[in-house]
Amino acid sequence: MYVVSVPELPGCMTLGHSYEEAIRQGQDTIESWIMVAEQDGDPIPSPKPFIAA
């Protein structure tokens, strides 16, 4: 089982039985989170830059 969590979007997380499924679910979850935030008039946080270690 793979878990996807999006720290910039509070409560935005999902899971999948494979890596590929988790990525697809993650993309859908991000889109849904943003859509609901827009509908509710909630602020959408700006993305933070990714810095590879």
Q: Nutshell version of this structure?
A:
The chain has one helix at residues 19-40; strands at residues 2-5, 13-16. By secondary structure, it is an alpha+beta fold.
What does this structure look like?
The chain has a two-stranded antiparallel ribbon with strand order 1-2. It contains 1 helix and 2 strands. It has one domain (2-40). It is flat, with a radius of gyration of 12 Å. The termini are far apart. The chain has one helix at 19-40, and strands at 2-5, 13-16. By secondary structure, it is of the alpha+beta class.
Q: Helix and strand string, N-terminal first?
A: EEH
Number of strands: 2
The dominant shape is flat
Residue windows where pLDDT falls under 50 for at least 5 positions: none
Helix content: 40-55%
Strand order of the largest sheet: 1-2
- What's the number of domains? 1
**How far is the first residue's CA from the last residue's CA?**
25 Å
Backbone CA Rg: 12 Å
- Oligomeric assembly: single chain
Biggest β-sheet description? 2 strands, antiparallel
Could you tell me the mean pLDDT? 93
The count of helical stretches stands at 1
Approximate strand percentage = 15-25%
| Secondary-structure content class | alpha+beta
